[in-house]
Amino acid sequence: MSILKIEKAKAFDEVITDIASDKSISHRCAIFSLLSDKTSVIRNYLQAEDTLCTLNIVRSLGAKIDNEEGVLCISPPSKIIEPPLVLDCGNSGTAMRLLMGFLSSADGFFVLHGDKYLASRPMKRVSQPLKEIGADIDGRNNGDLSPICIRGAKLKPFDYKSRIASAQVKSALILSALNADAPSFFTEPELSRDHTERMLKGMGVDIGYENGKIIIHPPKKPLSPLDITVPADPSSAFFFAVAAAIIPDSKVVLKNMLLNKTRIEAFKVLQRMGTLIEFVQKEDKYESIGDIIVRYAPLKAVEVSENISWLIDELPALSIAFAVASGTSSVKNAKELRVKESDRISAVVKNLKLCGINADEREDGYDIEGGTLKKARFNSFGDHRIAMSFAIASLLCGGEIIDTECINTSFPNFIDILKRLVRVE
Ligand code: S3P
What's the confidence (pLDDT) of residue 63? Predict the structure, then answer.
């Protein structure tokens, strides 16, 4: 089990050009390339464990994948191959849930599994609506837990109202609608990240809004291939934004970031807390892309209770800013945090208490009283975002993080970048 030792950092002024590529978009690039009959070209695909699992699965389903000097060329098979082995999603809920939607209407029998953390995450939110439209899908605990077995079937069109704002649920359902005989409709309580809609539209799917519902028209011909450069992941970059926000006199420029409004809400919360932040848009093809500049200023407490799905991945890192702000910050309506790679409500509160911060857990969030962080030994709980959040906290107090291999699931060069700011062993 690897342990990271991190010293206290001094003020820094850095331009970071090598933040990991966007994980959500990378997963979709691999899976969506199977929807075309031509070769998709993908630059800057995320080379991390989660997205490499998805790429391997796409290969097992028959795609030919060439890596030409870092540019992926994914040629789909004329027909999906029924793989002889189980399909390993690793730690990735996105891979498992999106593939459940895609494979439910593919021809063949498929088994999806993952690591011990993924094995305890709920899949019923996807398997249940899929069963209702005719999917032959099962798993432990009546289809809620992996391994998940799927025998592809002809699915009915649907009008589904999701109770949770989850891009994974939405994307799985949208993928399952593509082979139906008539249009399907999907509604979510608030807009979750919309990369699936944008990318499929770019590939030629007639997908849009009708009376507040997403309407998906099944395409009549194969989709156009993707030709895309994956931007840097704002959820990964956010760790360094928090570093600049908590270390007096620091500044960081984060280059070529995805600026989709459903993905930069955590930067907006930091801005509300007092941090000086500029967004400089540079291009807008499938997505808006540009630089984010973050400068230190004293932090004050906030309450976060809206647009939770827009900052669900960043709340652990944001909690480090709460821990040093003046006043008590609270997060509400964030019960989803309990079913991420770890129970992130419990993980954040336990680790903050270890470094002397008053933090209280509630079923749907937490309250954190700003204070002075003390040196501590933190647990990652096997969760990449918990490991990286407390690595950033350690920049203020010095610390050790236990069990940090999980960082490789999303941000393998995180420690290299951290080493530009401070000594890390
Ligand atoms: C993701 C959606 C989010 C997010 C996850 C990636 C995606 O999950 O937490 O890291 O790529 O669709 P939910 O949509 O289930 O909240």
Answer: 98
